[in-house]
């Protein structure tokens, strides 16, 4: 199923539709401020396993991130973070970054793995944030990759729908996506180490 949602003014009924799919253990493809994401409710083990199957990875090996609607959600999943890091987060988020933190005990339970770290995203996209807000907890997320060697990420929601319609329950058309992923920043040592340069420019916030 493909539904259109406008990022400037997300239709509450359409957001409810996406949330309903997630609550029933479904998988959605949705827009972010970078590339389109493949996501499910982080509390649904079967849905997490389905995403792993689609991506061809084992849950314990997966580097998923959690999409949060704001900074309040973050403390539920990460060990306490210091003031400097928190200040940077307040400046940089919502934005095209994935921040990696030391995970607290809630994360291994969710992913049935021994993961010590977790990636957190608060995208600058009202559709993604609104879905998380209405759902009441974060979405487990991974980027939609393309098999094309020239284009790493699919940007056209209609083509994404054609490719994934038999694998997922809902594709949200929020307009063309970006083909540049988020900048990944490791904060596990209290410092900021860029693991992957992407759309976000960290220096602008330091």
List the helices and strands and how they pair.
Elements: E1 2-4, H1 12-23, E2 28-30, E3 37-41, H2 45-55, E4 65-67, H3 83-92, E5 97-102, H4 106-111, E6 117-121, H5 126-135, E7 139-143, H6 157-164, E8 170-173, E9 183-186, E10 193-196
Parallel strand pairs: 1-8, 2-8, 4-6, 5-9
Antiparallel strand pairs: 2-3, 3-7, 4-7, 5-6, 9-10
Helix pairs in contact: 1-5
Average per-residue pLDDT, rounded, comes to 89
Strand order across the largest sheet: 1-8-2-3-7-4-6-5-9-10
The shape, in one word, is globular
Beginning-to-end CA distance, first to last residue: 42 Å
Q: Give the % helix.
A: 25-40%
Number of strands: 10
Class computed from helices, strands and strand pairing: alpha/beta
- Poorly predicted spans: none
Question: Measured on Cα atoms, how large is the radius of gyration?
Answer: 16 Å
**What is the number of helical segments per DSSP (H or I, 4+ residues)?**
6
DSSP strand content: 15-25%
Question: Could you spell the SSE succession in H and E letters?
Answer: EHEEHEHEHEHEHEEE
Largest sheet: 10 strands, mixed
Can you offer a commentary on this structure?
By secondary structure, the protein is α/β, with parallel strands linked by helices. Helix content is 28%, strand content 20%. The chain is built from 6 helices and 10 strands, in the order βαββαβαβαβαβαβββ. Strands 1-8-2-3-7-4-6-5-9-10 form a 10-stranded mixed beta sheet, sandwiched between helices. β2 (28-30) and β3 form a beta hairpin. α1 (12-23) crosses α5. The longest helix has 12 residues, at 12-23. The radius of gyration is 16 Å and the shape is globular. The termini are far apart.
């Amino acid at each position: 199923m493909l539904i259109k949602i406008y990022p400037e003014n997300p239709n509450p009924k359409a957001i409810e539709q996406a949330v309903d799919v997630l609550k029933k253990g479904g998988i959605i493809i949705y827009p972010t401020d970078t590339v389109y994401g493949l996501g499910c409710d982080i509390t649904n083990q079967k849905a997490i396993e389905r995403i792993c199957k689609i991506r061809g990875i084992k849950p314990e090996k997966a580097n998923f991130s959690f999409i949060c609607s704001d900074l309040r959600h973050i403390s539920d999943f990460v060990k306490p973070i210091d003031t400097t890091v928190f200040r940077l987060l307040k400046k940089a988020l919502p934005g095209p970054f994935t921040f990696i933190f030391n995970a607290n005990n809630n994360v291994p339970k969710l992913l049935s793995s021994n993961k010590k770290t977790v990636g957190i995203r608060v995208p600058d996209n009202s559709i993604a944030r609104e879905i998380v807000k209405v759902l009441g907890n974060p979405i487990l997320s991974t980027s939609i990759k393309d098999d094309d060697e020239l284009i790493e990420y699919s940007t056209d929601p209609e083509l994404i729908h054609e490719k994934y319609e038999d694998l997922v329950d809902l594709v949200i058309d929020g307009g063309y996506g970006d083909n540049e992923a988020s900048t990944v920043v490791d904060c596990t040592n209290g410092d900021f180490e860029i693991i992957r340069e992407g759309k976000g420019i960290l220096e602008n916030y330091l």
